[in-house]
Design brief:
Elements lengths: L2 H38 L3 H13 L3 H29 L1 H20 L4 H29 L3 H32 L4 H20 L13 H23 L5 H21 L15 H31 L4 H7 L1 H22 L1 H19 L8 H27 L8 H34 L7 H33 L18
Helix pairs in contact: 1-5, 1-6, 1-7, 2-3, 2-6, 3-4, 3-5, 3-8, 3-15, 4-5, 4-7, 5-15, 6-11, 6-12, 6-14, 8-9, 8-15, 10-13, 10-14, 10-15, 10-16, 12-13, 12-14, 13-14, 13-16, 15-16
Length: 498
Amino acid sequence: MSQTALAREGVRKTSAEGAADRRRWWVLAVVGIAQLMVVLDGTIVNIALPSAQLDLGFSNADRQWIVTAYALAFGSLLLLGGRLADLIGRKIVFLVGVGGFAAASALAGAAGDFSILVTGRALQGLFGALLAPAALSLLNTTFTDAKERAKAFGIFGAIAGAGGGLGLLLGGLLTEHLDWRWTLFVNLIFAAVALAGGVAFLRKGAPADRPKLDIPGTLLVSAGLFGLVYGFSNAESHTWGSPQTWGFLLAGGLLLAAFTWWQTRTAHPLLPLRVLLDRNRGASFLSIGITGAGMFGVFLFLTYYLQETLHYSPVQTGLGFLPMIGALMVAAQLATLTLLPRVGPKPLVPIGMALAAIGMVLLTGLGLHSSYATAVLPPLLVMGFGLGLVMPVAMSVATDRIDERDAGVASAAVNTMQQIGGSIGTALLNTLATSAGTSYLVGKTPSPANLAQAQLHSYATAYWWSAGFFVAGLVLSAVLYRRGRMQQDANAPVAVHM
């Protein structure tokens, strides 16, 4: 081949590599927007609930179903959604998830009565269960270079951690200046961008040799996860001694135990145990679940404090969380780009858990007239930096070195742990806070001053328990993560094609 031909060939290769590089970052933008849409939905609707209740005329008892319907469908179907992404193809499952989520959001936003709103929210959860694991697995299979992967997961992890706070801000803005329905209609904008980008930049990824779907495993794990989420949700409106609570929790636990047994027997398991048995990956799944439970304390109870005690508007409340989001994003980039490749996850996740626990303990000192700058801002910054060390690192390690055939279900397991952790946090912290507030008033006159102090006491109780979650996360992550840089656990089964 002549020198001219060689030069032309080099130019073509360089051009192709540059196009592929640009495509990778466009893929990150697409899946990031879709992930933000799903994460925002966890909090953006909460601020709008009082307005929706006034408009549609449903009761306080019914109000929880606006949140629970989404959580039930999302939490119980995530593993199925992840496996479908592996079997059918990540691009098609992603696009179906985004399109369906948009249609469900439009249905819920246009609801003329309570039943339509709940139906729309349940459908959002169903399509979110397709979208979320497909998005993470697309990221995992697109970024294979260590440096690029670190940067991509830093950004994605920051979105996952900060989305709840952004949801509070956006929900406040939309509810105050437009209408509660726009907290749902806004998803159409995100979905339109994600759909257009997905069609343009995502590549088809359907495997040539598709194993059969594990139908018994799907039924067992979906029913088991439904039982857990529903049982913990009922703990808010029923006592822990109610069959509606412990009965569903017990049934969910037994079904998940049966699912685990079945996965060791079937030829085509829904969740191959090799996905879970790597030591670093198992530690990451636990860390994500514990963080999901602990984060609830700062988002929910600090929102109550800012609005009901300091009398902030919804928009002011959302703005109050921005410094935490900024700290989280800075820490996420520092952790994934600089620290994780050098030291591995073992020091990073425990230190992040410790910082999150310290932030929660600092929040227990809030009073009726505390200053935002001196009493609220410092713990938020500490919390944000701590979560920025935990979330992107754990998400990256949880899907690192995973066989491409298992990328979807491994990504679904990440989302499932976060969802189950959030459900546990919601139930436990709400119940404990309510009990603490009631106990504080025993023997006291229910005057406005005592009621305000009881409310503060209930918030402080929730913060202490959230701190306890993070301390547990500190201990478990310090014990379970391997020292040094990431490497394959010698005792874990090798991830091979089936």
